[in-house]
């Protein structure tokens, strides 16, 4: 019977940095049998060490994922690796791993801007309230008797029904938005991001990467995950490493750069698309 409290304590340790509420879109890249999969979601709170999110997909505690989100008033997206600390009913806790100094500064800047905006709003609320002068004689006005508002039993039930209707309406709108999020096609709303499975079937020319001898000697193996921009003609326009050993990332990037894809058509026209490419290095 003592196992349940211990588990709850491990899932919710005391945080060094406080979490700040936020509502922005978030993408998680997870590996399913060695194949990367993008899970859409929403970030609910964030700090320099982690974030809370609602994600449309199942994950396990201790699983390593890649995170991408955009903070308001910050032009550059936050991209980092993270560990899944827990997940309950689509709600999950993420702990950042190896967050760079620049990314920490981006989060601090957003926290500063958010707190500054809150202070400015508080100042505007106080505009127009006269302050008493130190030498002025204040005359206390006679307070008018306040009229008490009484609600009968019938009015109480009517008010309760209205509150229940508003709560149901809010839940219905949230559920509809979430269902739309779960039903989202492989191509994102921007029409530019395509799932890895879809693009893997459109490969025309594929060059296998060269296994670095130093990495092979050191027994280094694993998966390299790259974010790729595919040009309208099917060539690889740009690559950005998401995870993997540096030596393996360099070799995978050189090989994938020469890959050729069948042009992706959108509304009958070839367009540039973003996707995720995984390259596995095996010692055997």
Describe this structure in words.
By secondary structure, this protein is of the alpha+beta class. Among the domains are: 3-102, predicted glycosyltransferase like domains (Thrombin, subunit H, Beta Barrel); 196-281, TonB (TolA/TonB C-terminal domain, 2-Layer Sandwich). The chain has helices spanning 3-11, 101-126, 153-182, 196-200, 213-217, 246-256; strands at residues 20-32, 35-46, 50-55, 64-69, 78-88, 91-97, 203-205, 222-230, 236-243, 260-261, 264-266, 269-271, 273-281. The strands form four sheets. A six-stranded antiparallel beta barrel has the order 1-2-3-6-5-4. The protein has a three-stranded antiparallel β-sheet with strand order 9-8-13. A hairpin with a 2-residue loop joins strand 1 (20-32) and strand 2. It is elongated and about 85 Å long. The model is unreliable at 1-12, 127-138 and 180-191 (pLDDT under 50).
Share of residues in strands: 25-35%
What is the CATH topology classification name of one domain?
Thrombin, subunit H
Name the CATH homologous superfamily of one domain. predicted glycosyltransferase like domains
Main sheet attributes: strand count, strand direction, barrel closure: 6 strands, antiparallel, barrel
State the end-to-end distance.
Answer: 46 Å
- Topology as a string of helices (H) and strands (E): HEEEEEEHHHEHEEHEEEE
Supply the CATH class of one domain.
Mainly Beta
Oligomer: single chain
- Structural class determined from secondary elements: alpha+beta
